[in-house]
């Protein structure tokens, strides 16, 4: 068989090599560490999936020996827990075939392709035949979740396909609910009773009551929906079930922090860090807790001026603690955009404006930054420019750049309001300020208030007739009306 023919057969396999998970130049060390942590703390029959993922990671690192070693572990784990269901071996055998192909051991690659075909043939004559696709779609879905937010939508689709065949499978329902939860959280959609993940998480908890992680996610979702009392019940159940599972502790702490129970959150997070010291998530949450305590102390300092000196010292200590943990976060996860933003704002609190600006720039230069994240970073950068640097021109630049990004986050409205305040102040101070009218025109244009936008740009052009930006926007609007 020629190499070209073999490659054609390999491309027909369903496995990590054909799922387009990561490119070789992607940051994978942090994912690898997370997977090793999961092997240590997740005690279930699906460890073979983690070994399959680690094998793919090792391939990306050009470490083929370790890739095969992890596939050996995946095969052992599958055989030990599969209860005779060989469909769990399909992805592992397909991965073997790809690794041996890259090692140019074509005979071994063909051997594993034959094994895949053999499993399919064997299953076609049994009652397990219908379980083949759900098994593969389920593993693909979990793999997509492990490899970051750009794969969440695909993960959701995989679980949907799997559940069409086996709608009451507990693990698949947990996976589907988790994928939707992450999508809604990332897109800030779970804000009312139309929250799709709520019913999915409830169903997952009913089908899989031992899954404490999903139970904790349900608690957080109820908190998002202003039903914290109900959510607390699930949070406490999850904590009681698995008091030393880091993946539960992080969500429990997040719930406590958002409820203002900062000291309780810190206690849980310190336990989590003792279990996984190098978790960026845990360090970020600790930094947020210290930031909350700083804000509380600032409020007390304003209402109790007699003890201002004591509060000032405590505030500075909290700022430094917060900075330490935010710095740890970005060191451990260099693509944690929000941690960069939080760190920059804390540098500002410490009057370290040069460091703050450098950090904002680093955040905007992250290759994997999403449009939602970019919009929010420009908001915070604009606020920093306006209030810390006292540079209105630079602030306007960042607010406008945020609004030109075609997404809607909580930051969009804040940028619109900030530009409107600047514009109205300018016009109040000087009724012939062209920039003020130009900014109002821009905001109206973003809001799709075309008539108001035209009116403002016309006023701006009367005051500054040769401004090409205003003229361009005005022509565009007139053509659209």
From TrEMBL:
UniProt KW Repeat keyword: yes
PROSITE patterns for this protein: TPR (PS50005)
Matching Pfam families: TPR_8
TPR repeats: 246-279, 337-370, 434-467
Gene Ontology annotations of biological process type: defense response to virus
Gene Ontology annotations for the cellular component aspect, listed alphabetically: cytosol
UniProt signal peptide: none
Keywords: Repeat, TPR repeat
Record flagged with keyword Repeat: yes
Origin: domain of life: Eukaryota
Family as reported in the entry's similarity comment: Belongs to the IFIT family.
Cited PANTHER family: INTERFERON INDUCED PROTEIN WITH TETRATRICOPEPTIDE REPEATS 5, INTERFERON-INDUCED PROTEIN WITH TETRATRICOPEPTIDE REPEATS
Protein name: Interferon-induced protein with tetratricopeptide repeats 5
